[in-house]
Write a structure and sequence with these properties.
With about 180 residues, this protein is α+β, with helices and mostly antiparallel strands. It is built from five helices and eight strands. The chain is globular and about 40 Å long. The structure holds coenzyme A. Coenzyme A binds near residues 41 and 111.
Length: about 180
Amino acid sequence: MDSRFDDAVLAGDGFRLSPLGEGDVEDVTSACRDETTQRWLPLPKPYTADAARGFIQEMAPEMHTSGAGLVRRIEIAGRLCGVIDLKNTDWLVRQTEIGYWVAPWARGRGLAGKASRVLSDWAMSDQGMARVVIQCATGNKASQKAAESAGFIHEGVARSAGLVHSGRVDLAVYSKIASDLHLA
Ligand SMILES: CC(C)(COP(=O)(O)OP(=O)(O)OC[C@H]1O[C@@H](n2cnc3c(N)ncnc32)[C@H](O)[C@@H]1OP(=O)(O)O)[C@@H](O)C(=O)NCCC(=O)NCCS
């Protein structure tokens, strides 16, 4: 089996998961400057257009070619509405982790949960993963709801396992395993 995800475009109900492009710099910059995004993700602060360019042109392609993961834009009618990725992939254990943010202009429609369901199900049914994890700060209720709505099961809390700008946080750990796919 390849130790790299297919560079696939995935279709969801009313959205697509597709590769980021040069045209996304402005939207990524704006979404990553957002207060809620900055609260829960340890992104560069202030977040500049150069940071967005580096993410799109270097970090995302490197994640794919190294086998570490896959970065997709969450797209509705051609507009970037968020970013979701597979990361920290262990090809021996066949485990990977999902991370996401949804742009302020697209929140409130459950997009993170819907995109996580599509990406995790594909990672297991098509790409050989046996386990997908989502970890979010225990205070990040919207993210926990997203994980639950994507069919992930709460496993417990990893103490002091995360870092945000305000300091260390406990992480709620969620997982979906291959046998869960048959439950839905
Ligand atoms: C987490 C995030 C991706 C969710 O975006 P989304 O998919 O648009 O989520 P929604 O706004 O539709 O909210 C999902 C659920 O959480 C609930 N929710 C939203 N904000 C909430 C809050 N502050 N407290 C409690 N519940 C909240 C919503 O009511 C909704 O509940 P429902 O499923 O019962 O209807 C988005 O808030 C975000 O980008 N946050 C910043 C980055 C981030 O936290 N990334 C994840 C790091 S682990």
